[in-house]
Amino acid sequence: MTKQFKIPTGKALIYLIQEKHYDALNGEAIDVYLDAKPFRVLAPATYCVAEIEPGQHAIQVKSSDAFTFGNKTARVGKDTYLQAKPDQAYFFETKIMKNSQNFVLGPVVSIGSAGIIELNRMKEEAARDLLKSYRLSASYPADP
Q1: Is 47 within 8 Å of 18 (Cβ atoms)?
Q2: At the topology level of CATH, where does 12-64+80-95+120-136 sit?
Q3: Do residues 113 and 26 lie in contact, with contact meaning Cβ atoms separated by under 8 Å?
Q4: Which long-range contacts (CB under 8 A, 24 or more apart) does 118-123 make?
Q5: What is the pLDDT of residues 63-104, one digit of tens each?
Q6: For the purposes of burial, counting CB atoms within 10 Å of the CB of 29, is it exposed (0-12), middle (13-18) or buried (19 or more)?
Q7: What gap in Å lies between CA 96 and CA 87, rounded to an integer?
């Protein structure tokens, strides 16, 4: 089902892809949550796909690595919302952007090598090209 891009009638599909990174610093895993529930872990050059009902859905991606800031432990993350329509497929790319210095950017805290996670919508044609050589993730995140 996943690489054939068949959408079940009346449903929608969400594909999340973590690009292959050639920089050793960007080889971290990303935990994926759908509607606040653990869904998959994406290593570089992997993807996951979810069959969903039409309507609004929350997509959250978090670094699998935690870091400590003061007395709080946190993980870098990014949230987005999707208004899914029936019989549609949606494609997103995830990426951890590394940083060499400490900084705070809006609601996302980046400490040292923790970086920032990007979650970007992809054009279907570009996503399909990547998916041809990527493997389906079978890993699940630990409880948040």
Answers
A1: yes
A2: Immunoglobulin-like (2.60.40)
A3: no
A4: 118/78, 118/93, 118/94, 119/59, 119/61, 119/78, 119/80, 119/92, 119/93, 119/94, 120/92, 120/93, 120/95, 121/90, 121/91, 121/92, 122/17, 122/91, 122/92, 122/93, 123/91
A5: 766 554 455 445 556 678 899 999 999 999 887 765 544 443
A6: buried
A7: 30
